[in-house]
């Protein structure tokens, strides 16, 4: 536990400059983008130059850029992401309203991807070079090549419009109906998770094959241990070290993929919030969503690092 705590402190210390760097990057990009808060505020009206100048003065938009950045960082430290110039509401309220749905979609997609990848990857490795292995490798290759938005459209056409098994879009709160929530989230989660599951399947299959060829496996089975015990207790645990690294990177894909998937299925999450803010020219909301997703991605990778440490004894001893 001491080693894990030490690694956790080290990773958190590295995370601090990364977060500050992301904040600085987003701040600079948004300040030089075409979305100006003064024009979004007067959207649909014909403001005079004096009105625009007054708005800029009241909101500190004419201050030097370094001063505005320091003020922005200080506001973030207090949990203030700014105010939407369109709705006049704090950005943090919009983010906290949309974030739970995006987290539900991301982690449901992650669970589906991990379960599918484990079942298919282990099966392919155990039936190496036989027909189950060949079939799974072909399916995983197709899955890697298929983009999530294309899968989403196919599933809507086939399972929602054609078969009527699932709704074509919309969201039902699990507090209102768990069954309705599950039906509304099934197609989005599958669309998001299948490409990730396909890639993880290939990685798990390769790792399992390499581990099954090691001497300790033959020795353990030769000494009388049941193959199920050897595979479940030793081979699978050792083979999951490499897939964990890939999984940490693919979680970023899942988080980013929600932007498109939420638009296709009409889910009011972070992706739809950001797309609407870009369309309406609301830079404060865009800035808040991008920062939340970026920081969330870094936190998830920190969790994957800790999990990687738990399953890798050699790394734990090195730490």
Please give the alpha-carbon distance between the first and last residues.
11 Å
Helical/strand content category? mainly alpha
Point out poorly predicted stretches: none
Proportion of helical residues: over 70%
Helix tally equals: 14
Name the average pLDDT: 84
What proportion of the residues form beta strands (DSSP E)? under 5%
The helix/strand order is HHHHHHHHHHHHHH
Rg, Cα atoms, Å: 24 Å
Largest sheet at a glance? none
Shape: globular
Number of strands: 0
Account of the protein in words:
This protein has 319 residues and is mainly α. It is 79% helix and 0% strand. It contains 14 helices and no strands. The chain has helices spanning 2-31, 37-41, 49-58, 65-77, 91-126, 131-145, 148-162, 178-212, 215-222, 227-239, 241-265, 270-280, 283-311, 313-318.
């Amino acid at each position: 536990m001491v080693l894990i705590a030490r690694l956790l402190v080290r990773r958190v210390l590295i995370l601090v400059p990364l977060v500050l760097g992301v904040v600085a990057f987003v701040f600079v990009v948004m300040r030089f983008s075409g979305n100006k808060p003064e024009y979004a505020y007067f959207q649909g009206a014909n403001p005079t130059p004096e009105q625009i100048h007054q708005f800029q003065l009241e909101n500190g938009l004419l201050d030097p850029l370094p001063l505005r950045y320091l003020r922005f960082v200080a506001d973030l430290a207090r949990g203030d992401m700014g105010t939407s110039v369109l709705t006049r509401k704090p950005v943090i309220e919009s983010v906290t309203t949309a974030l739970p749905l995006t987290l539900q979609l991301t982690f449901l997609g992650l669970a589906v991807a991990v379960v599918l990848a484990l079942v298919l990857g282990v099966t392919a490795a155990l039936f190496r070079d036989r027909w189950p292995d060949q079939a799974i490798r072909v399916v995983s290759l197709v899955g890697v090549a298929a983009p999530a938005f294309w899968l989403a459209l196919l599933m809507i056409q086939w399972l929602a419009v054609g078969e009527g098994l699932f709704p074509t879009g919309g969201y039902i709160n699990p507090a209102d109906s768990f069954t309705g929530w599950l039906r509304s989230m099934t197609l989005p989660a599958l669309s998001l998770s299948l490409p990730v599951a396909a890639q993880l399947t290939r990685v798990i299959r390769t790792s399992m094959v390499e581990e099954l060829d090691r001497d300790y496996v033959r020795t353990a089975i030769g000494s009388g241990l049941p193959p199920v015990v050897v595979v479940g207790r030793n081979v699978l645990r050792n083979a999951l070290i490499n897939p964990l690294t890939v999984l940490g990177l693919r979680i970023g894909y899942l988080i980013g993929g929600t932007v498109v998937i939420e638009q296709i299925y009409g889910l009011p999450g972070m992706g739809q919030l950001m797309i609407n803010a870009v369309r309406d020219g609301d830079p404060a909301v865009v800035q808040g969503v991008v920062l939340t997703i970026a920081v969330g991605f870094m936190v998830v990778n920190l969790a994957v690092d800790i999990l990687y440490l738990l399953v890798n004894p050699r790394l734990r001893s090195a730490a």
